Amino acid sequence: MSDAALPATRRVAFPPNWPARIGWVVLIAYVFYASTILDITWDRFRSGLDHGAKFIGRMFPPDFSADKLSLLYVGMTESLQIAIIATVVGVLLSLPLGLAAARNLAPRPVAWSARALIALFRSLHPVIVAILFVKSVGFGALAGILALIVASLGFLSKLVAESVEEMSMKPVEAVRATGSPFLSVVIMGVLPQVFARFIGFSAYQLDSNLRNSALVGIVGGGGIGATLLTAFQRFDYDFVLSIVLAIIAIVMVGEVISGWMRRMFQ
């Protein structure tokens, strides 16, 4: 039989992915269903815009009087101290925990136990953890520091473990072949491959802790969050704007510092 007599097969450049299409349809349908049961209406949104405009109007101009600046300075200083202490302690503890969670470096029982601990740290928002610590150690900076340490461990340890699992094992095997102990293997074979990324992760965590220090303060974890909550309770909205502007400025400075750290150690 000649080639001309063979039946021509129809080729489709982009065949339809029916499972994906069905999944999108189900997702969109669920979004509409959830919107109906959560009382999300256009009237509420429109009235919310009006109330929001009035609220923002009451915030201007920001209050930078001498007594308010004193409160702002004390609160921001405490938030910076909370963020820096939590980041340093979290970085120091996350490195060994991340190494223990790496399945290509640690024994399987140790790795899975460390991963379970990391999952526990990541399962709760820092605000919820701060509430638990406030109930345990009382109001103040200690509760905020402990909450942010837990948040730092959950984030950094997971990224360290993933970075170690993605690295090349040839340098590690070469160091092991010399009969070096485990600590030497980590220092000579592991850290040179993951240290630059670890610095980047740590810089990002410092930036995150600067933001979260305000959140944990709202629930009693010390810092500028407590000052912000008090200003809201007193309807002192012009001072609220001053606090928000100060938080934005500190976060932007932290972003510049974290970017400088990443460039320095790349």
Whole-number count of domains: 1
Mean pLDDT: 83
* CATH fold assignment: MetI-like fold
Tell me the Rg in angstroms: 26 Å
Strand content of the residues, in percent?
A: under 5%
Overall spatial form: globular
Helix content: over 70%
Helix run count: 10
Intertermini distance? 65 Å
Number of E-type strands? 0
Helix and strand element order: HHHHHHHHHH
Q: Structural class from helices and strands?
A: mainly alpha
The largest pleated sheet is described as: none
Short synopsis of the structure:
79% of the residues lie in helices and 0% in strands. The protein is mainly α.
Q: In words, what does this structure look like?
A:
This protein is mainly alpha-helical. It is 79% helix and 0% strand. It has one domain: MetI-like (MetI-like fold, Orthogonal Bundle). The chain has helices spanning 18-37, 42-59, 66-101, 108-122, 126-137, 141-166, 170-177, 182-218, 224-233, 237-264. α7 crosses α8. The mean pLDDT is 83.
